[in-house]
Specification:
two-stranded parallel sheet, 5 helices, globular
Length: 196
């Protein structure tokens, strides 16, 4: 069994007998084991647009109600993997090693980090993503950097027209996890306990 934290109630992980889903109404900050986790903590207050969000709506950068801290605690305690957008400010806040694309890097505390692009797992947009894992054996991932056909944008400041043949990916699709990527994260979490 794998605990999927901070997921949509009707999302990619729902209805699976091998996954214990923790959507918003279950409050994943209260997860207390015993299974390895796949954690998708909210990213709006940590992403590169967090400053714009703070300026426009007054929502403070890094103020996610303790979700990232709880997800980090869960993955360190129970093993598994945490995913967040590339260049997430949470990495600096929590003293995590900034990953590089193309390989896993070992952290001083025993965790592993890498950057992967979700386009290599079926997303239409590039969707650069940082992964942090504990208690698992690092796997070879797809570090191919395939061409993407869409850009993530819910704002008209980016572009009024598609860029070349690329179209925009709006909020729901942008935040969705492609099935192949979800399977990858679950497969990583399933190895918890196989690595000292």
């Amino acid at each position: 069994m794998i605990a999927a934290l901070y997921v949509m109630a009707d999302g990619i992980y729902s209805g699976r007998p091998d996954v214990d889903c923790w959507p918003e109404e279950r409050d994943a900050r209260k997860y207390d084991g015993p299974w390895p986790v796949v954690a998708h903590p909210p990213c709006a207050s940590w992403c590169m647009l967090a400053g714009l969000r703070e300026h426009r709506y007054g929502l403070k950068k890094g103020d996610d109600g303790g979700c990232f801290a709880a997800a980090l605690r869960s993955v360190r305690t129970w093993g598994g993997v945490l995913e967040h957008p590339a260049h997430s400010a949470a990495w600096r806040k929590f003293d995590l090693t900034a990953p590089r694309f193309g390989s896993w890097q070992r952290q001083l505390d025993g965790g592993w980090v890498t950057e992967v692009w979700q386009v290599d797992y079926g997303h239409r947009a590039q969707k650069k993503t940082w992964l942090l894992s504990y208690g698992v054996a690092p796997q070879t991932l797809r570090w191919e950097a395939r061409p993407h056909t869409a850009v993530v944008s819910g704002s008209h400041n980016h572009c009024k027209k598609p860029i070349g043949e690329r179209n925009r990916v709006w909020r729901k699709e942008a935040s969705s996890t492609p099935p192949e990527f979800a399977e990858l994260l679950l497969s990583i979490a399933r190895t918890a306990g196989d690595c000292p």
